[in-house]
Specification:
45% of the residues lie in helices and 13% in strands. It contains 25 helices and 17 strands. Strands 3-4-2-5-6-1-7 form a seven-stranded parallel sheet, covered by helices on one side. Strands 8-13-12-9-11-10 form a six-stranded parallel sheet, with helices on both faces. A two-stranded antiparallel sheet has the order 14-17. Strand 3, helix 5 and strand 4 form a beta-alpha-beta unit. The two termini are 39 Å apart. The chain binds adenosine-5'-diphosphate and zinc ion. The site of adenosine-5'-diphosphate has 18 residues, from helix 3.
């Protein structure tokens, strides 16, 4: 079966997202790959699909038990033989998993990096055919990243121990160019196919506010988002306690999460949140790594975090399912002092010497300044974020608190068609260019290296557009995923670009506004065209099913899938399979329950 067939049959999706197909095809050709894709872009599919197509087993190395367990239950819910070897297993469970592995039944095995040094695990990996090793959260291998994990340094010696070197596929959501370089080196990737889909998360709305009374602002905000799942990050345990208490006093249910609670309370509160028993969680940054609850609708930072990496990662826990979601930061100059204090007094890693420690601290302070600029500057917030991560981005995104006030929409349908067809014609002649060379071609400037280009029909079709405007449009097309970027900034077309031309879609881009008006109310009410009553009935059905199966509701179906179900209202197996996120196994398991709800609703 083809990769696309596997995607449909096991995961229920009709098409690959930006970057997925390319990464999968390189893996299947036996090449190492390095994917840098933002949270929610769909990294898991990139290794899960080829894992099912390759002969042996895939070992996935992932930093946290909770993260692995979530992934494994999601795979099992789709009928995929995946397991997780971790320290929480009792003797019987461990043995039963081992025997399934030795019988060759398991396609995907998740484990933590610490386990790679144990002789029993090394034996498994040496004796069984391992076709691929996947490293999730690969930035953890670099000490310049914000979550350095020394045990990630076990990975390379482990790979070197195997009788045959498997393909390495490594993924991360947060890597500055410096960290990315480190990852390649420390994992010794062999001429990897590198792809960054860009860090942009189109569906996230970014906003910085400086409320005079944070608490009041918070209460008002969460009241206006009733019934939606949200995370509220606070900088200290004390604040977590205080904010939770205030929410309770206002009659708003919320649970708390920080390192000072007992293990059992932490686990309980996290579960209550994941299983939708409580919609709000107030937490320190101890919460979140490995939480892939896909329907978090907003993330509020009650304080400014210590750097943009942490911010983007934490805020990025909103809207993983692709629905519109909000990331709001409450800024107050007092947050700077707290962060400075935390940097000065951070728990030191005893393994590093004084000089390195000093260097790391300096770096932390620089990062804090950059974070502070994010909060106080007068520019598009997305532009600032994406530039920091080394990504190109338009000057106005149209979906942040700055742009809501300072930008307006301009139609660029024709220009986009010209840009895309020019790339297409260049590719036909096997010419692959970056944005500035492409701009030159579009504007009719001769490239000394390629004089023959002047004969192209698309040569000079945008003569009247300034170089700056042309580059801005290309950047915009990249940011919305119509164009993709490979190594050396080379542009290429993807499926989305093809559809854009074929379906003659319209396109507009945010540009600087002539006159500024007041900021319009932010809103996420663009859920568009679905029937709210049916949606609520389907949510209820999902809750019942999830409870029975002891699964988090989003593992049964995500909100996106339920929305699509509302739109299509399927009442036959065929129609049910056409819903995005429904594969063969889920049809068999849940089809009847959900179609009964739909049938009753329609009559
Ligand atoms: P990441 O690991 O990059 O943060 P995930 O792998 O958790 O993202 O994917 C995020 C969500 O997107 C999941 O709900 C996943 O099922 C969904 N998804 C992934 N690929 C596709 C696709 N091709 N079509 C539709 N949904 C997808
Ligand atoms: Zn913006």
């Amino acid at each position: 079966m083809t990769a696309l067939g596997i995607l449909k049959q096991h995961f229920g999706y009709d098409s690959f997202r930006n970057g997925q197909a390319e990464l999968i095809s390189h893996i299947l050709q036996g090449q190492d790959v390095f994917g840098i894709m933002p949270t929610g872009a769909g990294k898991s599919i990139c290794y899960q699909v080829p894992a099912l197509m390759m002969n042996g087993m895939t070992i996935v190395i992932s930093p946290l038990i909770s993260l692995m367990q979530n992934q494994v239950s999601a795979l099992q819910a789709n009928g995929i033989p995946a397991v997780c070897l971790n320290s929480m297993l009792d003797e019987t469970a461990y043995k039963s998993i081992l025997s399934r592995i030795y019988r060759g039944e398991i396609k995907i095995l998740y484990t933590a990096p610490e386990r790679l040094v144990t002789p029993s695990f090394q034996r498994i990996a040496r004796e069984l055919p391992v076709s691929m090793i996947t490293v999730d959260e690969a930035h953890c291998v670099s000490q310049w990243g914000q979550d350095f994990r020394p045990s990630y340094l076990n990975i390379l010696p482990f790979v070197e121990l195997l009788p045959r070197r498997p393909v390495l596929s490594v993924f991360t959501a947060t890597a500055t160019p410096e960290v990315a370089q480190d990852v390649r080196k420390l994992l010794d990737l062999h001429e990897p196919f590198c792809l960054t889909t860009g860090f942009n998360r189109e569906n996230l709305y970014f906003s910085v506010r400086q409320p005079r009374d944070k608490l009041q602002a918070l209460l008002e905000f969460v009241k206006s988002r009733q019934g939606k799942a949200g995370i509220i990050y606070c900088i200290s345990r004390r604040l977590v306690e205080q904010v939770t208490e205030e929410l309770h006093r206002a009659g708003i249910p919320a649970v708390r999460y920080h390192a000072g609670l007992t293990d059992s309370e932490r686990r309980q509160n996290q579960e209550d949140f994941i299983y939708d028993r409580v919609r709000l969680i107030v937490a320190t940054n101890a919460f979140g790594m490995g939480i892939d609850k896909s329907d978090v609708s907003f993330v509020i930072h009650y304080n400014m975090p210590k750097n943009l990496e942490s911010y983007y990662q934490e805020a990025g826990r909103a809207g993983r399912d692709g629905s519109p979601a909000e990331c709001i930061l409450f800024y107050d100059s007092g947050d700077i002092r707290i962060n400075q204090f935390l940097i000065e007094n951070s728990g030191d890693n005893p393994q590093i010497d004084d000089k390195t420690r000093e260097k790391l601290r300096r770096k932390e302070k620089q990062r804090l300044t950059i974070m502070q600029n994010y909060c106080t500057g007068a520019f598009c917030l997305r532009y600032y974020l994406l530039n920091y991560f080394g990504d190109t981005s338009p000057k106005y995104c149209g979906n942040c608190s700055f742009c809501r006030t300072h930008s307006e929409q301009k139609d660029i349908t024709q220009e986009s068609q010209k840009i895309i067809s020019c790339i297409y014609h260049l590719h036909e002649r096997n010419l692959h260019f970056g944005a500035s060379e492409l701009t030159a071609v579009l504007r009719g400037k001769v490239l000394k290296t390629h004089p023959e280009i002047a004969e192209l029909s698309t040569y000079g079709i945008m003569r009247e557009v300034s170089e700056k405007a042309c580059l801005e449009m290309i950047t915009y097309l990249i940011s919305i995923g119509l164009l993709s970027v490979k190594e050396q900034n080379i542009l290429y077309l993807n499926r989305k670009a093809g559809l854009f031309l074929k379906e003659q879609q319209k396109l507009s881009m945010p540009v600087k506004k002539a006159l500024s008006t007041a900021e319009t109310a932010s809103g996420t009410s663009q859920l568009s065209g679905t029937d709210e009553k049916l949606f609520q009935l389907l949510v209820q059905c999902r809750n019942t099913v999830a409870k029975k199966e002891h699964l988090p509701p989003y593992v049964v179906f995500t909100d996106m899938t339920l929305r699509d179900m509302c739109r299509k209202q399927p009442v036959s197996d065929m129609a049910f399979l056409s819903v995005s996120g429904v594969g063969r196994v889920k049809l068999e398991k849940y089809g009847d329950a959900f179609m009964t709800v739909i049938r009753n609703y329609r009559t």
